[in-house]
Amino acid sequence: MKYKYTYRSLHLDCARHFFSVETVKKVIEGISYGNLNVLHWHLSDDHGWRIESKKFSKLHECSGEYYTQEEIREVVAFAKEKDIEVIPEIDMPGHNLALLSAFPEYSCKGAPVIPAKARGVYRTILCAGKKQTLTFIEELLEEIIPLFDSQYFHIGGDEAPKDEWKECPYCNAKMKELGLTSYEDLQGDFTAQVCKVLKKHGKTPICWNDALLASNIPEDVVIQYWTIDYAKEMKAFVENGGKWIYSDMFELYLDYPHSMIPLKKVYEFTPHLYKYPLPNQDGCIGFEACTWTEHIDNEKDLCEHIFPRIYAMAERANGEEHTDYESFKERVREKIKLLEKADIPYTKEEWWDPEGKARRNDAIQFYLNMSAGVDEEEAKKQAASAAPKLQFILHFIKEFYKISDILAFLKALF
Ligand SMILES: [Zn+2]
């Protein structure tokens, strides 16, 4: 069978919450029913570092559970049997509190930090000015790269606040040395250095679309589009013939509940870059649905978020004839028989497309949970932003409230 896209993927965050090898295998088994061919495995973040390092054992000891190198190889081999490639993600320079809790010397200030407990974007990130930071990253990557046989290697590049870089003598000296005028370009240079290491090992780097804020990131980096914040930069990148992956957060983020992103929505999306129509889709290598796990901590909940919505994206990525939604649901019911046989949890049909009051209440509950826990003392001290972004709130209002609802609400107030 000839598929429409060469990259058909599920992203799985095992850094915010850890999931056992057995659960990861179940997820791989389940996505194989939809002919996906990639698992993007998010293995490091502010909350945890999940890969055993024989060179730097403090790393995996810093944040609780992790996968041994043997277990990683086991997962990669299991996926390979199902024609699924496992792409690791080591996010940098942001989202690194766990790594820095073990090795604080690689941040700008070198002050102790602890792994994050709450959702948020944290200010303390890797220092791009210290030479030893890059040396450390290089050694670490040389240890991790051989564990995976994927063509691609994801290096994140998202949500990296520059507060500490601006005050750092090392970062500022590096800027001067390189003749850079913006801190975003300092990230661009950092990314370029890391890309060099990856390319030396024959890997193609992938970054989130935040990385496009830098004017100097290598042109051959594959960009994963998730946020409308940098849609303009994304449009320019696409127009210049860059290669990219579509993961719009309001269509393909499966950690959002069905009330936010119903099954039908995942089936019917049309790739776009926020308000910019797509100039062309030639550079698009495929689609990826993301499952972040700040608020998901068990197998049942995880699988119910993924299945069956992933099959809607899968059909689109496979390029199967885009027929009507009712006949798609027939095919989903067939897949569910397979999930049941393999003891893989999934969302029951009555909640595939929630409506009315139940839908709105569920979404409100999700929204409230998003902000829950963020006022813990440490989080408060370290977080650059913990609350959902403005674009999220605006989307939420647009999705659930009509002008008449808002007017009625205001009328009731005054
Ligand atoms: Zn620095």
How many individual β-strands?
Answer: 10
Radius of gyration, CA atoms, in whole angstroms: 21 Å
Order of helices and strands: EHEHHEHEHEHHHEEHEHHEHHHHHEHH
Biggest sheet: strand arrangement: 3-2-1-9-8-7-6-5
- Mean pLDDT, to the nearest integer, reads 92
Largest sheet, strands/sense/barrel: 8 strands, parallel
Written description of the protein model:
With 414 residues, the protein is an alpha/beta fold. The chain has two domains: 7-359, TIM Barrel (Alpha-Beta Barrel), CATH 3.20.20; 360-414, no CATH class. It is built from 18 helices and ten strands. It has helices at 21-32, 57-61, 69-81, 97-102, 131-144, 163-166, 169-178, 183-200, 231-239, 249-252, 263-268, 299-306, 309-318, 325-341, 356-371, 377-382, 390-400, 403-413; strands at residues 7-13, 38-42, 85-89, 121-122, 152-154, 204-208, 222-225, 244-246, 284-291, 383-385. It has an eight-stranded parallel sheet. It has a two-stranded antiparallel sheet with strand order 4-10. The termini are far apart. The mean pLDDT is 92. Bound molecules: zinc ion. Zinc ion binds at residues 108, 127, 129, 165, 168, 170-171.
